[in-house]
Amino acid sequence: MADKHSCGVGLIGAGVVGGGVAGLLLSRRELLARRTGIDIELLAVADVDAARAAALGVPEKKILADYRLLFDNPEIKVVVELIGGVGVAANAILDAIEAGRHVVTANKALLAKRGREIFAKADKKGVIVAFEAAVAGGIPLILALRDGLVANRMQSLLGIVNGTCNYILSQMAASGRPFAECLAEAQRLGFAEADPSADIDGLDSGHKLALLSALAFETWIDFPSLHIEGIRDIRDEDIRITGNLGYTLKLLGVIRPEQPPEIIAKGSGGGSGRLFLSVHPALLRRGDPLAGVSGSLNAVKTEGDAVMESMFCGRGAGRYPTASAVVSDIALAASAAVFGGRGPRWSPPEENAYSLAPIADYRTRYYLRFTVLDAPGVLGRITTVLGRNQVSIAAAHQFEGDHPDGAASVCIFSHVAREGDILASLAEIGGMDFLRGKPALIRIEE
Amino acid sequence: MADKHSCGVGLIGAGVVGGGVAGLLLSRRELLARRTGIDIELLAVADVDAARAAALGVPEKKILADYRLLFDNPEIKVVVELIGGVGVAANAILDAIEAGRHVVTANKALLAKRGREIFAKADKKGVIVAFEAAVAGGIPLILALRDGLVANRMQSLLGIVNGTCNYILSQMAASGRPFAECLAEAQRLGFAEADPSADIDGLDSGHKLALLSALAFETWIDFPSLHIEGIRDIRDEDIRITGNLGYTLKLLGVIRPEQPPEIIAKGSGGGSGRLFLSVHPALLRRGDPLAGVSGSLNAVKTEGDAVMESMFCGRGAGRYPTASAVVSDIALAASAAVFGGRGPRWSPPEENAYSLAPIADYRTRYYLRFTVLDAPGVLGRITTVLGRNQVSIAAAHQFEGDHPDGAASVCIFSHVAREGDILASLAEIGGMDFLRGKPALIRIEE
């Protein structure tokens, strides 16, 4: 059977992930043929740096300096874009679609920003744009959300989708060291890039969250309107204080309908209206399965109205874990090319199921930390302001500080409150004379 | 688009899961049409109890007393078998295949025992037998292993795949109560059946493990040759002692090649030879992600040579979680029926990648507990026997017993040892005069 069906693959970009994909395609052609019924052959690799492609073991005659030459070979039915970025990569994908090729990409930034245009063009040309590797690396999450949970209306999604941030926060918690030191260590060990801003400022998580929103909540957001906070300002003091009280800090992508669909066993209301979408550092109770996901791992926890809670955990980055996801898309696209059917086809929703809610209307529990001069009445003044703004306090702690100027830390754990009321309180307290530095605000997700 | 393509579904069995499937198909026809491009319509429900089908809200004219009547309707392209058991269900599935219908089933017992015959017949007739709901309920695990991790050679699989056992063991750990009490409670709360033996004796986990072996390790086993231990003999004393030392006890399905494939980044050796397949109670260190999966949840942890570790967690049973998986198969089968392509097609391996290894050759760490008369030299006699059998001891504890006859508990944690050597030691110690009752042997999985 394997020798009867074949599908050629063209790879654009021979970098870290591209190298992994080439390695998998070259080394396990037989295994893939046995499992898919198709002889999947890497026919060409395009990279501006021919030496880099050659170093992967790709025969010289298969190396192209210009990706457009791929389209001259009619045997190439699946084109894999692994350049990254939103420049050449966009042209490569649009050109491949125009040339009638199925496309596999890991490019979350591009899809989050120009996905509508790309998927619309693919629909028109009747080809697939598959992107399993764009979110949560090796975890087959796109497959799970698109096909595995197709019968569900989703109630919530919480995800640790950036391994760099998770590594840094795990190190901060384990070692007690400040952010800058843990970032430097992560850079030294290859868990963070030389310019780490796309990771630590939450942009990368935001790109992934935008795709997850479209997939799982049928809501395509205009990327710049997404609320994004990174981890650059996270203080080791807050990790220590909350850690001692049973919390773990994670950078989360959060998607929550204001009125989630009810569990189907109990009814069928909700599931429309407004959607909160946000990337932010959040405290999780230590028993939460996401709290135990440490180091560079990724994990996504979902609730569906039929399936209830699910969690998917694994490597979110790295050469071979990411290549594993890319090759799974190649196999599905090759199957569609050879045997027909829809394959891993997906289009953004024509109409959004939800509109975007402003973060000021978010309702959850909050952790607030104020560094204050240890003067009489400070705790009372803070709690009075919070009370006046409808923020009810679940727990309050004042810690003798190790601050050089003798300042103390006042930590408040609120009951569920509206974020706008929290912000109004902080604005008011911000003007008070006892305050030293900017207060910390960290959401508690449950 | 939705009105242009349609696919009829016939359901056999209107019990708990069947009711959930009918509920989902009837209530979210529009949502499924939007997501799949197909109007998926429940055209008939066959059940010997017509009233049970009617109670699901199925119109009377769609209710059939005999499943064979389903095949008279050419609009029914997908047949869903949810009777369970290996009698009528087998005939229903074989008849549906014979009639050229795609089949969706949750019947792990049947597939584990007669899967070869069923899949072979489906291949011959060119139809699909999809079984997402047969393993780990609502978790889209089959999809992940078949398609998502298609590029991987698997290194290990450990799974909590029976919610009843996990519930009972979680309750034993939380409450300190003995097995019988926790079983009775589970029965009262609906987490265990009146006749719980298929669950607590590990058979149900075994059925699932057989399917996972075929899917993830390309090794189809003759079901009766599978090593299966249940949880009936687990003593609360062992949960307490090991719990105090940082371990959690779970009933696991375990699949491990004797020589696992190397991580691809490091080589490509291994991955053939013998395979250990076993269902047994096992101790996990508390930091292991599987250790945190409590109550009736299921979870499967895998290691692949490209993707490395992954974990999939969620509800393994229950009306709507299971129906969620069934409907995902229905959607994929409907897509194959309408748009062509291979859909969720899968066949057992033609040749097994591994042969089955006898459990006597298993190598892991072991926990042993001996209840002994508190006489001089007992600990020495036990450890001498172990040493003579090449079992090296990592830790040994003797606890003053709360046994009525003044007996004490001697607990041994071995280093990695060969199971045959452990068993030889137990046989030898079994004849010694100080021993009271049967020693406990629990594997430690890391």
Q: What percentage of residues of chain A falls in helices of 4 or more residues?
A: 25-40%
**What distance lies between the first and last C-alpha atoms of chain A, to the nearest angstrom?**
51 Å
Low-confidence regions of chain A: none
**Which CATH class of the largest domain in chain A is shown?**
Alpha Beta
Looking at the structure, what is the overall shape of chain A?
Answer: elongated
Largest interface, counted by CB within 8 Å of the partner chain's CB: A-B, 63 and 64 residues
Multimeric state: homodimer
Major sheet size, sense and barrel closure of chain A: 12 strands, mixed
> How would you state the average pLDDT of chain A, rounded?
95
Q: Rounded to an integer, what's the Rg of chain A over CA atoms?
A: 24 Å
Question: Can you tell me the number of structural domains of chain A?
Answer: 3
Give the CATH topology of the largest domain in chain A: Dihydrodipicolinate Reductase, domain 2
* CATH H-level superfamily of the largest domain in chain A: Dihydrodipicolinate Reductase, domain 2
The number of helices of chain A is 14
Count of strand segments of chain A = 18
Question: What class would the helix/strand composition of chain A place it in?
Answer: alpha/beta
CATH hierarchy: architecture of the largest domain in chain A: 2-Layer Sandwich
Question: Beta-sheet strand percentage of chain A?
Answer: 25-35%
